[in-house]
Amino acid sequence: MEKEDKSEIVSITSRKLVPYILLFGLYLISYGHFSPGGGFQGGVVLGAGIILLCLSRGISSTEINFPPRKITFLEISMITAFILLGIAGLIMGGSFLSNILPGKAEEVPTPGFIFLLDLVIGLKAGAGIILIFYSFLAK
Amino acid sequence: MNNIPLFLIIIPLFAACLILLINFFKPHPGLTQLISLSSIIISLIILGFSTIHILIEKQTLIYNLGGWEELVGISLHLDGLAWFSSSSGAIIALFSLVYSLKEKIYQYKFYFFFSILVTGMQGVVLTHDIFNMFVFFEILSIASYILIAYSQEGKAIKASFHYLIISSLGASLFLLGIGLIYQGCGSLSLTQIGKTFSIERGIPSSMFQLTISLIVVGIGIRAAFIPLHLWLPDAHGYAPTPVSALLSGITIKISFLAIWRIISILEAINSQHFFLWIGSLTALIPVIWALSQTDIKKLLAYHSISQMGFIIVSFGIGSALSLTGSLYHFLNHSFFKSLLFFSMGAVIYTTGKRDLRKLSGLFKKMPWVAVPSLIGALSISGIPPFNGFVSRTLIATSLKKYPLPLFFIFLASVGTAASFIKLMMIFLSKEKVKPLPHKKIKKAPKTMIYLLITLSIISLLSGIFPSWIVKVISNFILLKDLPSPIKIYSFSNIGKSLLIFVLGIFLYKFITTKYGKQILLRIRDTEPGLNNSLLLVILSLILFFILTIPGKY
Amino acid sequence: MEFYLAFLILFIGVWGMVSKENVIKKIIGLNITNSAVILFFILVGHHYGSTAPIMEKGVKDVVDPLPQALMITTIVIGICLTSLALALALKIYRKYNTLNISRIEKLAKDE
């Protein structure tokens, strides 16, 4: 997308909107164990925010802030972290993906293990969505 | 000990993640291959440890994910059938990886998706939760779509797209079936479904039958039953050779074993009996197309469908003898079909050609590829003393009461013999076409040749000593006693297989005449496309539903 | 009533997959089929007057949360399949310069 093609309205609206979208994504991730939401949903909202940035600012200037290589690394490390968390549960708690932290899932201040899982899944899903979008736009 | 089912799934998955992680900064081809090989070897060692528990003490190892009890959570069951298919899958995956080491066109992404494919396979086999089975099926399929299109040639991409569309439609149908089950009994655990989802417990019989049809057709697309098989020849033919061997050798049969498990849990006797007809037609019809093929790998792919027919037909009978024959053929087919795929892959690797009209007189140039592939061809044609003979004899013996399916199976065997004589002519015939210049022929790597020799020794040994394997399958895996000891190497059985071989030679003579060639050319041009195969899915769903309504058959 | 709607949508999706020649339209048909099954599954766990399964004080009549959790998984799989199918369609277009499936099959056969 060239610079001349951009509409003023789209670019300003999306610039104002993107932080709130990202914040909403983080909210969905961090309250997923307690209310509707969760890792994947929040991650997709995070990804959608960055896709909106791509659409309004053009892909090349977005790639400066969110470089594909770093996002790839995020995705790979998150999927590894998920399996490591599962194995940690196996070693400490007796079964795969069981709770290794103190705290219960029902309480917001100490959400325990499930928050970690939601975070890992959320970052992984968001990174995946962004990468799919990047690779379709690549020339 | 109870963690074994979990580890079988986690280890390949973790290996896949490690492969991605170590290749992120700098490509490490050697380390990548080491990780993927060692993950499968570790799985095999673990399976070896569990042998005593499963086969001798006849236990089922149950693992409940997350510590939830079985009715609520997901549980993994490692019973005899799962042990059997899981270990044969791991062995064939190991052989495929060893083959792929020397072809040097595979990057780390290949090994990543290969490990994911193995994960999906083990998951489908082990899981005892029907929705979880759907998820593992999708993992397996997504990895296989990508691996089929790995060469990025036009035909491979088209085949992969065809497979994707049709098997996603199948997945939707399967999911609809799961929805009906959940509506009927409110549980997804196969144990609970078996207890509550039945006509006696108040499920309307039409609903029951609709569920069975949706599940059978949905998974059946991946197991390549007769009207649903149209995606397979292209997909398995144009995939990279190690992937073709794994897909043809194990994956389609694992899909069938999933149907096996669900049908035997739901006790749908009508549907099981109907597999007699599906199986015999599945054995017969693809052979006609296989005879007409000129692409060496596509010919093998058509025979994979036909050999699936042998496995399916003996499942349809349902007696102890026929089920033993079915599993024995499962094992044998995965060995000799991967042997054939590897040797044809070696031919393509050395000569760079895959059209059998352009290949001839290769026996002198590569005897160490030719002898194993001849052994493979003799096995698949059912010539004693190779393993194909044994399992086909078991199947034919158990089919005695059903003359028409037996006749179809007989015709299919004749066609198989003829088309493998046609294939083996690339080694045995004299160089009539322009001889290939000697410079163009590379040497097959030693690893490939050792692999081919190992597989042919296995094919020979499991043919010579059948009674031991038959006993293991019937008594320890199926937990059923055979009615009486069967004599496999009897005079009449050997005579029958020689009769099939002689008729096969006559058929081969016929298709090499001018008239026969014209017929084959017509057949080759009638390969239905994607639209027709989608229509056939809908049609076969309706037909299966109508034909298996209880009481009618 | 809603069950019939789900099946109607299912048939529309299958019709799109079978009858359309364009590869992209086939993928859209696949998506519609998938959505119909998701709708069906959600309906299985639902009945009139029930609320969302957030267990606070005073909440009694809730829908079955299990089908919803399962359908999230199905949606994820659907996204993966769609993006993979679109990537394959892109590759096919770059190779054969057409999106018409019969022409693609003809070109692949003559290759």
Determine the fraction of residues in helical runs of chain B and give it as a percent range: over 70%
* Coarse shape of chain A: elongated
The biggest chain-chain interface is:
B-C, 33 and 41 residues
Write the element-wise H/E pattern of chain B from the N-terminal end onward.
HHEEHHHHHHHHHHHHHHHHHHH
Mean residue pLDDT of chain A: 84
Count of DSSP helices of chain B? 21
Distance between the termini of chain B: 45 Å
Output the helix-strand order of chain A: HHHHH
Rg of chain A, Å, rounded: 17 Å
Main sheet of chain B: which strands, in order across? 1-2
- Specify the helix fraction band of chain A: over 70%
**Assembly annotation:** heterotrimer
Structural write-up:
The complex is a heterotrimer of chains A (139), B (553) and C (111). Chain A is an all-alpha fold and 139 residues long. Chain A contains five helices and no strands. Chain B contains 21 helices and two strands. In chain B, strands 1-2 form a two-stranded antiparallel ribbon. Chain B is globular. The model of chain C has no long low-confidence stretch (mean pLDDT 89). With 111 residues, chain C is an all-alpha fold. In chain C, helix 1 (2-19) runs antiparallel to helix 2. The radius of gyration of chain C is 19 Å and the shape is elongated. The B-C interface holds B 131, 135, 138, 142, 145-146, 149, 152, 154-155, 157-158, 160-161, 164-165, 168-169, 171-172, 175-176, 179, 182-183, 188, 527, 529-531, 534-535, 538 and C 10, 14, 17-19, 21, 23, 26-27, 30, 33-34, 36-37, 40-41, 44, 66-67, 70, 73-74, 77, 80-81, 84-85, 88-89, 91-92, 95-96, 101-102, 104-105, 107-109, 111.
Q: Topology of this protein?
A:
The complex is a heterotrimer of chains A (139), B (553) and C (111).
Chain A: H1 8-30, H2 39-57, H3 59-65, H4 68-93, H5 113-137
Chain B: H1 4-25, H2 29-56, E1 61-64, E2 75-78, H3 80-101, H4 108-126, H5 130-148, H6 154-185, H7 190-196, H8 205-223, H9 232-238, H10 241-266, H11 269-292, H12 296-317, H13 320-351, H14 367-381, H15 387-398, H16 403-428, H17 446-464, H18 466-477, H19 491-511, H20 514-525, H21 530-547
Antiparallel strand pairs in B: 1-2
Helix pairs in contact in B: 1-2, 1-4, 2-3, 2-4, 3-4, 3-10, 3-13, 4-5, 4-10, 5-6, 5-10, 6-8, 6-9, 6-21, 8-10, 8-21, 9-10, 9-12, 10-12, 10-13, 11-12, 11-16, 11-20, 12-13, 12-16, 13-14, 13-15, 13-17, 13-18, 14-16, 14-17, 15-17, 16-19
Chain C: H1 2-19, H2 23-44, H3 65-96, H4 101-110
